[in-house]
Structures are given as structure tokens and as C-alpha cells.
Hints:
Number of helices: 4
Shape: rod-shaped
Number of domains: 2
Structural class: alpha+beta
Largest sheet: 3 strands, antiparallel
Radius of gyration: 23 Å
Helix content: 40-55%
Amino acid sequence: MSTFCVKCGKENPEGSKFCAGCGSSMNVVSDPNTTPNTTPNTTPNTTPNTTPNTTPNTTPNYNNPNQRPMQWKNEGTAMVITILFGIFGLGGIGHIYLGRIGKGIGIVIVGLILIIITLFTMGIGLIIFLPFAIWVVFNVRSDAKKYNNELERTGKSPW
Length: 159
């Protein structure tokens, strides 16, 4: 059974959190005969214009069926930021990007201390710094997944 978006009227798979047509959070209407009003467009070779009875002439966004909310955080972006800044001991910037300010600042402080230890010990500090840097990269990816899963489930940031 499919559900229909109240905003644009697009048919979506059952259990969808966001509309494939307009990207808005799904307000589910399970009976296709009640809310969505499908009227075909008179121009040949075009997608039908579907509009709900609640909002006049809202055209869905057919160009981007996988649109996410603006608050969505890209895992790849978080990891790249973490790796690039992590070279200089600033790996916590990726956590700050995710909104985990306190954790990010703590990681930056620890990273800078480890970089200073590495410089003063002529590289021996890398024994501690490298595992720490690897943990930070995996942790930022894990936090990005948690953030996006919670955002999709509830529509709110988890932290």
C-alpha cells in the first residue's frame, strides 16, 4: 500500500519519512481517493501535475526525488573535514560541523596536545596520535549516522 504526501500529492512507498516529490516530511494520507487530486497536464510528454486539495497549485519537485531536510549532515563531508583538519591536530572540527560543539572542542584540545608531544619527542608521540586520529574519523562517521537517523525519525537534531 502506498501513502500520499499532503503537501504535493505524490504517491510514496509505505513508511517513507520524506516525500520523494517535494522532500517535505510525510503527512500520511492512506486513501488515494480523499486528498490528492491528480489532473493531467495538457502539454504532451510531461509528467502529470499532482496537487492536493489543501494547497492550490503546488508543483512537486520531480528533479530531486531523494531530497533530504536542510539540517541533514553528510557523512563524507564530516569525514573529509575531520581528516583534513586532523592532520594539524584539529580533528574535532568534524564534530563541530555535526553540532557536537563540546565534544569537538575537547577533541581539538587533545589533538593539539598530542601534536605538541609528537613534536617534542621527535615523532615518538605518533604512536599515540595515529590511533587517536583514526578513532576520531570513525567516531565522526558514527555520529553523522546517529544524527541523520534521529533527524529522519523525529525531525529534530539529537543533540
